[in-house]
Design goal:
The protein is mainly alpha-helical and 341 residues long. It is built from eleven helices and four strands. The chain has one domain. Helix content is 52%, strand content 4%. A two-stranded antiparallel sheet has the order 1-2. Strands 3-4 form a two-stranded antiparallel ribbon.
Length: 341
């Protein structure tokens, strides 16, 4: 049996015959769900750098607070539907996603500030390709991402109307400070739990063929690919915000939920393992788990924060052994389908 052809790129990274590079470490899973508990690993996962709190959660919280205090209409105005205040929220959200996704795109794709260093797929975004709108992957992704902003805005505006009319349970920070902080962290676990089940649902063949296929055109992902979804998928994806109808929370929790849902995909789809600054400074991104989903399709439906893939047998941890395991499963599935015919 011949060995797979490999090449060494300009950064000394070994790439396989498809141009893929691997970090060499298994995908990250939240240690809080491992047994026996490793207290040091759990504390590093919460307070280290990078970790649950730093840097992305902190950055999201800064964006949420600025938006809440300076770029959100008064609660009294939102008691009744009005296109003017909804448009204000929509404008804020369009600006946010443009600046956020655009910054990642400029760094990684447009100006290639770190070249292919730590890039999973050795190729760049597709141009002159008939499978994408405008025959351009980036323009296609931007179009569908902006479509998603409309759903983000619609869910947020609906939640604001319910909050303004005292129709859902709300808490104050001063009366429930511990619960407030706990729920801020819990939002991330809820989002991952919700994402896994919605993701499994849209991989059901009828929905995949009509809806989710659009997102999976992006095998080689970029920052704008994360929100490039069919409108039906946007509708399902942002439904995670509805949890605040039944769970007592603060408007900041609802906004964090929406912000992470809308802006987080730029991080998980940037296509790079690290953000590299110069020769020695790098920020680990560690979104290899979701990249493997785009490569293999039927693995890693969730993320490492809530390891549902591990519990339900769909975890590809990035190792050669996992490659062999899922290739064998795929071969058995294809053989079974052939026999049925």
């Amino acid at each position: 049996m011949t060995k797979s052809k490999t090449t060494v790129d300009e950064h000394g990274q070994i790439r396989d015959r498809r141009g893929e590079w691997r970090s060499g470490r298994p995908v990250w899973l939240d240690p809080i769900f491992s047994r026996p508990w490793d207290i040091k690993a759990i504390l590093r996962g919460i307070f280290g750098f990078p970790s649950m709190l730093y840097p992305w959660f902190t950055i999201f919280m800064v964006l949420v607070c600025i938006s809440y205090f300076y770029f959100t209409p008064d609660l009294a105005v939102m008691r009744n539907f009005g296109w003017s205040w909804v448009a204000e929220i929509a404008a804020r959200n369009f600006v946010l996603i443009t600046v956020w996704n655009g910054a990642f795109h400029l760094w990684f794709i447009k100006y290639r500030m770190q070249g292919r260093k730590k890039k999973y797929n050795g190729n760049w975004m597709a141009t002159n390709s008939s499978i994408f709108l405008f025959k351009d992957q980036v323009y296609d992704n931007i179009f569908w991402s902006y479509s998603g902003v409309l759903f983000w805005t619609a869910y947020e505006a609906g939640m604001w109307m319910l909050i303004a009319n005292d129709m859902i349970p709300m808490i104050s920070i001063s009366e429930h400070p511990v619960y407030f902080c706990f729920l801020m962290l819990a939002v991330q676990y809820w989002r991952n739990f919700h994402f896994y089940w919605i993701h499994r649902l849209i991989h059901w063949k009828p929905l995949y063929d009509k809806v989710h296929y659009l997102h999976h055109k992006n095998v080689n992902v970029g920052p704008w690919s994360g929100m490039a979804m069919h409108p039906v998928e946007h509708f399902l994806y942002f439904s995670c915000m509805l949890i605040h109808i039944v769970i007592p929370s603060h408007p900041l929790h609802m906004m964090l939920n929406g912000f992470q849902t809308a802006l987080g995909p730029a991080i998980s789809h940037c296509g790079f393992d690290e953000i590299v600054f110069g020769d020695e400074v790098a920020l680990m991104n560690d979104r290899y788990m979701h990249y493997l989903h785009h490569r293999f399709h039927n693995v890693n439906y969730g993320e490492g924060t809530v390891p549902l893939d591990k519990w339900f047998g769909s975890l590809h941890n990035g190792t050669p052994e996992a490659d062999a395991h899922f290739r064998a499963l795929h071969s058995a599935r294809v053989a079974g389908q052939t026999e049925e015919k």
